[in-house]
Design a protein that fits this description.
This protein is 36% helix and 21% strand. Strands 3-2-1-4-5-6 form a 6-stranded parallel β-sheet, sandwiched between helices. The protein starts with a helix and ends in an 8-residue tail after the last strand. Helix 1 runs parallel beside helix 2. The protein has 155 residues and is α/β, with parallel strands linked by helices.
Length: 155
């Protein structure tokens, strides 16, 4: 749960994840653990009209994600197909709550719309960043990146 508290600082009211000049269209939460489900619940309360997608390997976590407000709860293998159907433009915001995987950051970057916001709650700087998340990528795609927990060694 401490990660969820830090994640709340990254997106205190959901507004910091909104695209500039408009209402959100789509958010994805990668990792439907306690932190991820907390993010879904906060997003559902602050952005009631948004399309929310929970992504997790574990079926029980996907069920909980649906109970916390996710419109869709899918596995990582299913996310691309779902996005092609419901949000081909990409997600306006993504909350990464999985943990220490550079591959998750790569997945997030493949799903996020240009001009979107990526909140890295689970992948703190202690793990290092994916080579896919470079300043050049952020500038080219006009991405906003927020960090939620920094070093887990300080928790």
């Amino acid at each position: 749960l401490p990660g969820g508290l830090f994640g709340k600082k990254a997106a205190p009211d959901g507004q910091s994840l909104l695209p500039e000049g408009g209402a959100p269209r789509c958010f994805a939460v990668l990792g439907c653990n306690v932190v991820g489900c907390l993010a879904l619940a906060v997003l559902r309360q602050t952005c009631p009209c948004a399309l929310l997608i929970g992504v997790d390997e574990v079926m029980e976590r996907r069920k909980i994600a649906k109970s916390q407000g996710a419109d869709h709860a899918v596995t990582p293998k299913e996310i691309r197909s779902l996005m092609d159907r419901v949000a081909p433009h990409g997600c306006d915001g993504i909350v990464e709550a999985v943990g220490n995987s550079a591959a998750v950051v790569e997945t997030a970057l493949s799903l996020i719309a240009d001009g979107g916001t990526l909140a890295l709650v689970g992948t703190g700087l202690a793990y290092g960043l994916s080579p896919f998340l470079s300043p050049e990528v952020c500038i080219e795609r006009n991405l906003t990146v927020r960090y939620g927990c920094g070093s887990r060694t300080k928790l």
